[in-house]
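tool_call: predict_structure(chain=1)
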Amino acid sequence: MLKLTPILLAIGWALVMYRVSVWRTSRQLDAKSTELADPRLRALCDRMAAALDLPRIRVHVYEIEPVNGLAAPDGRIFVTRGFHDRYRAGEVTAEEMASVIAHELGHVALGHSRRRMIDFSGQNAIRTAVIMVLGRILPGIGVVLANLLSRLVSARLSRQDEYEADAYASALLIKAGIGAGPQKSLLEKLSRLSGGAGGTPAWLLSHPKTEERVAAIAANEAKWVSD
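tool_result:
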């Protein structure tokens, strides 16, 4: 039991830190966001809501410049001011913005935030266990290897979530009569809009490669449209 104590403490600490992070994120989102009011985007959200048998889909604009969309741990959907500004400037269409909202809805519907909490706790436990084992054999290097392993696991799980959210979004967009075309075209724009991932190795990226995501969306689209 004593040998497991560091691992159990690591899991407990990870849960506490995750809860603190959620609380801080919620406070920041509350202070720096307003509900989306654009008529065109609201109309598209209403079409998706009808497809889901929901009375309404609430979307908020988060007042930061980076181009991004996010699903808060409490289930709220946000697009950043930077993203909304690109839409207002004509660089992104209303349908492409709708595909972002559909993707974030996928994260919420599929419980990815809850799964991230479990994954984060597990990764922290794995990291602690690896340090305990390798730290005796390779002092110093063991910590580096444990951190690298944790990053690899986290990136792989995050990429899986992105594929799942993409598939959910494709199904919703098709059902709402918007189609998956805007989803594919936006992904092809995102690298330019957000600055890309630089030289980060693909196996450490939190999102799959654009061409792989587009290919997966196209495969689902072909299957679901023909059914």
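agent: Confidence is low (pLDDT under 50) at residues 197-201. Proceeding to next step.
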